[in-house]
Amino acid sequence: MTEEHHWITCTTLPLAIYREVATHLRQVPGVEAEVLPQTSSQFDYLQSQAGGLRYSLSAADDNARQRVSQILQYYGDRFGPWQPLPQSS
Fold first, then answer.
1. pTM across the whole model
2. Number of compact structural domains in the chain
């Protein structure tokens, strides 16, 4: 079974909310999620203290994909749009 991997960010999302999103995503069967570390060397209160979010899910699982989309839309509506990050391994 093929997995889809996604790297996303919301530049104003607080670290605690990143953790909440990752926990929420992990509740969807077959979904793995982790908060990525901050890569900036300069601290800025107006920027997120997380580098982004990585999640993966089965490419064949439409229900999981739909639920993940709903979760991300919920947080995006409240904190700002999600943007793709360059993929890394």
1. 0.86
2. 1
